[in-house]
Specification:
Helices cover 19% and strands 32% of the residues. By secondary structure, it is an alpha+beta fold. The relative contact order is 0.21.
């Protein structure tokens, strides 16, 4: 067994009454989308917004939407909640949609079960086969499989848990959090493997791709980060993270980019997501509800709009949080 797994495995076999109590954080979150004037001659503009869902790690309450026309919230792929509306007439000159909500986010501690016992922390994922399949920017070709195999062979990893830890250590050790230049932020595994730098999307493209290449289901989630300090502030942009699955442990959370930014929390972020985040959607190459006419979305966190079925550029967004 790899020596760096021993502290983690102790968690998986701990008695339930010895499990640490997850930290939690309650806050209000405001999401604003600003749609510009449509091109002359446009008949209709469609707008889609991600809406955060409730799960074992977060509760969402008091959702309020302010919009110029009627809207609908549907459940799309992978349980993602999606707000959609269509405007015509005067609103084609531009409009705004505001979403506010209260949320409580719990620290996601992966405690698992004793070896051989089925995980009980959540219902089985009906999309497990999808989390073994490639994404447009994360192919599972022979080169990716070779690189993943080399990583786990070098580490001497045998079990899926060992392999996932070896991949995590490889990514954290060899990719730098760096948002300069061009190409970062798309979650392009070949860009990340070549440049060895990028943001959270790029870190997790490598982790997810290598896991899937070795037959370990891995899934992508995206939302917004909150600073550790309590208070109120603007949120500048998104954050994404990942989980992998083994039958012995269930879904195990990881955050490779946060570990790279803060090496003192490297062990923590293998098996834990902190409470300083709010998840909005899961998966990549997404089809919305109702279906957009444009291409599948690489990921869905910012507002997306179409004018007569063509992607509409210039949609603005702003986000704020306030702790309760």
């Amino acid at each position: 067994m790899l020596s760096f797994l021993l502290p983690l495995l102790a968690l998986f076999v701990s008695a339930p009454d010895s499990a640490p109590k997850p930290r939690s954080r309650s806050f209000r979150f405001n999401y604003t989308a600003t749609v510009p004037a449509a091109p002359a001659g446009t008949k209709a503009v469609d707008l889609w917004l991600p809406v955060p869902h409730a799960d074992k790690s977060q509760q969402v309450r008091q959702l309020r939407i302010t919009a110029p026309v009627a809207y609908h919230i549907q459940t799309g792929e992978y349980g993602n909640r999606i707000l959609h509306l269509r405007v015509t007439g005067a609103e084609l000159k531009g409009f705004e949609v505001k979403m506010s909500l209260e949320a409580t986010r719990q620290e996601h501690l992966s405690l698992g079960q004793t070896a051989g016992a089925p995980p009980t922390s959540e219902a089985p994922d009906p999309n497990l086969s999808r989390w073994l399949a490639p994404d447009n920017l994360v192919p599972l070709d022979p080169k990716i499989r070779l690189w993943a195999t080399e990583v786990v062979a070098k580490a001497g990893a045998k079990t899926d848990l060992d392999k996932a830890r070896a991949i995590y250590e490889h990514v954290v050790s060899t990719v730098t959090y760096d948002k300069t230049g061009q190409g970062w932020g798309r979650g392009d595994i070949y860009y990340a493997c070549d440049a060895r730098r990028g943001n959270c999307t790029d870190f997790h493209a490598v982790f997810i791709g290598y896991c899937r290449a070795l037959g370990i289901p891995a899934r992508f989630s995206i939302g917004f980060p909150l600073p550790p300090e309590r208070g109120a502030a603007e949120v500048k942009g998104y954050h994404c993270w990942a989980e992998f699955f083994t039958p012995e442990t269930g879904w195990v959370p990881i955050d490779a980019s946060e570990a790279a930014k803060d090496p003192t929390r490297r062990n923590y972020f293998f098996g834990t997501h902190d409470e300083n985040r709010l998840e909005f959607s899961r998966g990549r190459d997404l089809t919305l509800a109702p279906r957009q006419q444009g291409q599948a979305l690489n990921y869905f966190i910012y507002p997306y709009a179409e004018a007569d079925g063509q992607p509409l550029a210039g949609v603005g967004h702003s986000f704020r949080f306030q702790d309760k």
